[in-house]
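Cross-posting from the modeling subforum.

Setting up a comparison between two proteins and wanted a second pair of eyes on the formatting. Protein 1 (sequence, then structure tokens):
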Amino acid sequence: MPEPDELGRLLAEHDTWLAVERGLAPNSLAAYRRDLRRYEAFLRRRGITDAAGVREATVAAYVEHLKRARDDDGHPRYAPASVARALVAVRSFHRFCLDEGFVDEDPSEEIGAPRVPQGIPKALTEAEVEALLGAVEGDDPRALRDRAILETLYATGVRISELVGLDRADLDLEDGLVRVLGKGAKERVVPIGRTAREVLAEYLWRGRPELERPVTRTVPGDPLLLNARGGRLTRQSCWKIVSAAGERVGLAGRLSPHVLRHSCATHMLEHGADIRVVQELLGHASLSTTQVYTKVSPERLRAVYELAHPRARSGVGRE
């Protein structure tokens, strides 16, 4: 088997860096590899066999190549999000080469990613949320914790990373408030509804004490949510709990890590909440980030139309 040339060697070293230094999950690592194999093939077709031979115009041409690619039916082969993701991989490779001293400049630094259309965040219906919140059965410590997780995510709209970062001192059940440390270390105070408070109180009274271990006393910050070993619950484990609950009630294909956050915001706006209140609740720095939730779902649009339009119902307005 022939020795890899300089381009192949650097791509292999970057791959090792992604796996070892950055610790990417297998799926993420596989996506980077696919994108960079495609990029490597593009470079080789242009006779480029070394990262030092790549110019800004080369990277720009590659992005344009992806944008213009068509399938057999004439449709775009790559969606804007796919092109943007491919550029992330390309930038990662060139930044790695620069940081490691293999090249003197990063040719991808000034290349802009295509604008990805912002759609309506996926939200569950209120009935689906009710099913999800009722998916955890039993009263053992883990069940009490898992119910507290689901109820709190929907009641407060916090991110999973924010939830697992909570300490017991952040929670004020008497006043129904929780102190949250969000993105950029920005702190906000979020209200908690009655049902979530009751579920949290039961977890703190009967569930958490059973999950405590000697190691718990050494964990920084006195975490609110504990794992089976007495340590702080991780973001990945919390998402697995949400995902498993969704599978039990047939929602596996509808879930994402932010699904209850999206649903909380959507349902509040549909019930008349002021958008600036929702912005504060979610911890959005910009109102434009929250405004995406104001886009009306087709189901909601149809329901309001049928209630409000005088000729929407059969027989209305006819002799």
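Protein 2 (same layout):
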Amino acid sequence: MTATSIELWGPLLVAFVVAAAVTPAAIKIAPKIGAMDIPKDERRMHKKPMPRFGGIAIYLGIMAALAVFALKDKGITSVMTGCTLIYMLGLIDDLKDLKPLVKLCGQIVCATVVYIMGVRIEFITNYFGPGNMAFGDVACFIITVLWLIAITNAVNLIDGLDGLAAGIVAISALCIGYVAYIHGQYVPTLAMMAIAGAALGFLPYNFNPAKIFMGDSGSELLGFSIAAVSILGTVKSATIVVVIIPALVLGLPIFDTVMAIFRRLAKHQSIGTADKDHLHHRIMKAGFGQKRAVMILYCISGIMGIVAVLYSRGLTVEYLGLTAVAIMLIYVLLSDTGNRNISLKADKIKKERPDKKEEKNKQDKHIEKGSDNK
């Protein structure tokens, strides 16, 4: 193993080990500090109180890896500060259930602090001419804050099934890290590997049936960290790393978030209102169990990750083809017709099972009767 490969894989391994080691302790501590998710409505998938203190394991995993491998970088120091603030905000929300507006204001403060420390989207690639398109101070601030908050909440919203958010973030971070690496952005690469490692270290305890939830502290931390780290790649590669690639890789949660906003506005509801119409909920309604639903969404996320890599390498036809496949998959899953067809098949299977059981019982009785006659 070369020194370069140690540097690349080191953050992932350190974050993985720390997160995996801390999670069991978090499971035991959660009830003592009141960090429990109690099912209060039908929107909850779990039926009994669950620890939601997993964010601490993810946070310590990321911080440990960055401290060992990338602490000297000023940008990483800024990201670590922002991650600490967003984690604390999420933890307070897990313990006290903050109102949506209060939480949003807190997220704006966290994003503003990171902006002040130099993590900014200052320009984008000019696809219609030479050079880049620079933003003014006001536009730079607004775009940076919106980007950070949007990705933070996109990841938070998909944390509705066991293992879903952790798995999708791990896939996304690895894909973005690879793209950053091939574009010579080594610091963002190391940071993305740390994020992926922390998510993967936590995942075995969070996959169905989950022993612990990451809570808002974990999901907001993962979303914020990916958004902030991706901005670090803008110095040399403009939008290829900061906007387009993360947007493609995180296409699933971003799409789900946009649909949720439009859906709630159409119903004249607050955009902070929770519901059971997210993509993962629709898949569950279609007759799939949690594990299968999560695996389906992993596959779509993986396809979008491959699309991002192909796009970054200029393979236009290939990435357009895979994008079309991903869109069709999402359309089928969202389509009422598709859902009805799948539901009918699921119902048919459920109805057939009792019949088979009844037939088996009849056969058993017949055998017993034959034995009695003998």
